[in-house]
């Protein structure tokens, strides 16, 4: 941008585009297409043709992400229709996923709402903490905060590794250790994963906003420190993905989407904790990670490639969620550094998403496109993992971040 006026005009136009995408596509799609009018809650799957898949199981991840999304929408946009969707999601989760006997939430319910997979996957518990705490922030329902706090205490009692730090992946229904993993093929027999720790970090950050207890602060501070010590490869700027219980890395794969997502979530966690020394390390790591993705993972068209290893790119498709996270991650790096390369990268990511990922005809976002920009098939618009969380969150974050940038720019140039 050549001057402040031009930058402000450009950011205002971008903010308008993002708001339109959020309200008239993403939130509208989930409101109009996903409510299960037969069995309650929300449908478990919608295929590529926008048809409900009869009898599809309903995942904890899908339902908690719906709750988080519409809670945030109500908190920020104050549209009562969003609160009604959040209420519906909350009520369904409490009735069908909460294990009243052993605590925690089931991983999967069947189409009728009965428990289908009862193991306590920590990844799913983390998203429950994230969603319950956000619903409390939006609707002020104390019961939701109580659910989140109880889950935090269960994770600290059963999942926290008291010897090596961090959190184990999975438990049986009654919280005994088990070897079931939903985050890899499990051929690695990993005890810990980046993905679980990233989303426990994200969840604890949000819970701390609602419940700033000293014990949670200590848990979160240690988790962030362990993430920076063991999960972020400070030399390469990439996440290590899978570990044994002593934090030995078990995989050399690179996930560019997780790297750019993690960069801003690490910075956010440090900011909410308010510990200056830890924040300095976290912000430096965030910048290093964003730089690595910018140099290695961004294609010529602005899209984020999926995965690589030491040999180079091993998955050149471009899934929907890394594109969403790249917009936020690169803009976060711009906020931390003032380096316009990151601002350009964020805008390029949004441009790619608008051209290839957003389904302007049938709504929502395609699961993925090939490197040539052709939508892939077979995953559908809604499933256990295809949720409104990544794309809506990118919009929520960018609306707030652009507003903050515009306000700062105006103050500087008064």
How would you describe what is shown here?
The chain is mainly α and 414 residues long. It folds into two domains: 195 residues, Glycosyltransferase, CATH 1.50.10.10; 167 residues, Glycosyltransferase, CATH 1.50.10.10. 57% of the residues lie in helices and 8% in strands. A three-stranded antiparallel beta sheet has the order 1-2-3. It has a three-stranded antiparallel beta sheet with strand order 10-11-12. Strand 2 and strand 3 form a beta hairpin. Helix 1 packs antiparallel against helix 12 and helix 2 runs antiparallel to helix 3. The mean pLDDT is 96.
Describe the secondary structure blueprint for this structure.
Blueprint: H1 4-33, E1 58-59, H2 60-77, H3 80-96, E2 108-109, E3 115-117, E4 120-121, H4 122-139, H5 142-159, E5 170-171, E6 192-193, H6 194-210, H7 214-231, E7 232-233, E8 238-239, E9 242-243, E10 254-255, H8 256-273, H9 276-296, E11 307-309, E12 312-315, E13 318-319, H10 320-337, H11 340-357, E14 368-369, H12 389-412
